[in-house]
């Protein structure tokens, strides 16, 4: 069968690829090619801008809904991270639109004038050919962190995206939630 002849890899990573392509059609073609090469996980990384986030969500929605004419691998796509659901991104549904992104400090290459650590914002999406994870034991659903945790003296603030497609601000305390 075609499926057994297709060369696939457990992990396929594409960083800053979608933003290099000028049209939606070209991005969809690239995502289709990457997905066909994926036997388990596809990781897409883009700039942590509104445009980068929009491109990741376009790729996500395309792979979740597309029907290929020739099946290279019949297993459907599911979202592994960072989204805990497959509904519309709640960050795209509210004004002002803010991208789902994360900051990472890094040490740049030792070039003239670049010696100090720098911080970069990025967005990512991980799609899987495995079934989506079930909610934890007892129906506990903490959601996924979408912003850095803010620590205070007796509590912490967590901003999460829930499996029901809603954003939530949680205040976690030792008294309410145990140590």
Helical residues, percent: 10-25%
> What is the C-alpha radius of gyration, as a whole number of Å?
19 Å
Largest sheet: 5 strands, mixed
Q: Find the count of extended strands (DSSP E, 2+ residues).
A: 9
Sketch the topology as an H/E string, one letter per element: HEHEHEHEEEEEEH
Could you say which structural class the secondary elements and strand pairing correspond to? Answer: alpha+beta
Overall morphology:
globular
Give a brief outline of the structure.
Helix content is 23%, strand content 31%.
Would you write up a description of this structure?
This protein is an alpha+beta fold. 23% of the residues lie in helices and 31% in strands. It is built from five helices and nine strands; from the N terminus they run H-E-H-E-H-E-H-E-E-E-E-E-E-H. Strands 1, 2, 3, 4 and 5 form a five-stranded mixed β-sheet that branches. Strand 8 and strand 9 form a beta hairpin. The longest helix is centred in the N-terminal third of the chain and has 16 residues, at 50-65. The relative contact order is 0.16. The model has no long low-confidence stretch (mean pLDDT 86).
Any descriptors?
single chain, 179 residues, alpha+beta, five-stranded mixed sheet, four-stranded antiparallel sheet, 5 helices, 23% helix, globular
């Amino acid at each position: 069968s075609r499926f057994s002849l297709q060369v696939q890899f457990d992990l396929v990573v594409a960083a800053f690829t979608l933003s290099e392509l000028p049209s939606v059609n070209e991005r969809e073609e690239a995502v289709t090619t990457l997905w066909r090469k994926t036997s388990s996980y596809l990781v897409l990384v883009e700039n942590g801008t509104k445009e980068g986030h929009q491109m990741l969500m376009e790729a996500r929605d395309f792979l979740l809904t597309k029907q290929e004419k020739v099946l290279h691998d019949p297993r459907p796509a599911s979202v592994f991270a960072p989204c805990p659901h497959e509904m519309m991104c709640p960050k795209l549904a509210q004004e002002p639109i803010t991208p789902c992104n994360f900051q990472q400090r890094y040490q740049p290459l030792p070039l003239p004038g670049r010696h100090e650590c720098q911080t970069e914002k990025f967005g990512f999406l991980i799609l899987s050919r495995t079934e989506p994870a079930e909610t934890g034991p007892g129906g506990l659903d903490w959601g996924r962190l979408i912003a850095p945790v803010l620590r205070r003296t007796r509590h912490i603030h967590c901003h999460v995206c829930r499996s029901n497609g809603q954003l939530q601000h949680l205040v976690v305390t030792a008294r309410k939630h145990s140590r």
